Amino acid sequence: MAKKPTPEDIFYDHLTLGLMGTLAKLPRVCNVNCEQRKPCEKTQIINWEQRNTIYLPEDMKKFYMSTDGFLLQWSYQYAPKDLRRVGFIHIPHLHQITLLRDNIELLMNTSSTTPSEKTLAAGNETRVIDDGTEISGSVGANASVPTLVTRKDRWSNTLPNITPKTKIFEINNVNDVAKVCMLYEANCPTNPKFYLYELNAMKWIFLSDTFSEYFRMAIAHLGLPYWELCFSNIGLPSWAEV
């Protein structure tokens, strides 16, 4: 007789949109495990907000009042004697979400590329140059200094404007080549967005407008390793490509 699911089992099944049941039906996938965690107390959330002088978005607040973080793992049987842990979805404990203070000046510099260092083709135009900065201007007799309009990533998503008032929190480290960050811009202190920051290239890539969207993206990718790198210039490691 099948084991009757507990209220906790039902909660995590709903939270993951039935992902664990889906994984359990896939050939060679085994050891599907979701760590059950206690919810955060309201005082923990208030203390975090006071310590960081910022408000958690409502969807994230509700998440942490249901479970203090999240960890789902699964393994794949490559061969009879070759079982490896592959799947991994991780949301840190609330107290582990800390300000990304290292090299903040460098992060600020990467958000203000000087357009005059780039070249334009002839004619009046607005272009997105290779670093994702959209500029407008003209050449020839009516030439003018190119004007910074906006900055976009390779997917044409607007990039953040990093200032001394920007608050950046690390959510996940991706294979030591990138970080998933929750970023509060100075003009939007209650609605952070989620970005991937490439450490070597020092570039931002937009991931989602909300925490809920980011979490659903992780579920949609089945927790496959380094799925966030699909959206980066780095790309997936060769062994992780399907």
Termini separation comes to: 37 Å
- Helix count equals 6
- Low-confidence stretches are 113-131, 133-140
CATH C-level label of the largest domain: Alpha Beta
**Radius of gyration of CA atoms, rounded to a whole number:** 21 Å
Counted up, domains total 2
Indicate the overall shape: globular
Q: What share of residues is helical?
A: 10-25%
Approximately what portion of the residues adopt beta-strand conformation?
25-35%
Fourth-tier CATH superfamily name of the largest domain: SMI1/KNR4-like
Q: What is the correct CATH architecture of the largest domain? A: 3-Layer(aba) Sandwich
Q: Classify the secondary structure makeup into a structural class.
A: alpha+beta
Organism: Zeugodacus cucurbitae
Protein name: Tubulin polyglutamylase complex subunit 2
Features:
alpha+beta; SMI1/KNR4-like; 6 helices; globular; 242 residues; three-stranded antiparallel beta sheet
Topology:
Blueprint: H1 7-15, H2 19-24, E1 29-34, H3 42-52, H4 58-64, E2 70-79, E3 82-91, H5 104-110, E4 125-128, E5 133-137, E6 147-151, E7 167-174, E8 178-184, E9 193-198, E10 203-208, H6 211-220
Antiparallel strand pairs: 1-2, 2-3, 4-5, 5-6, 7-8, 8-9, 9-10
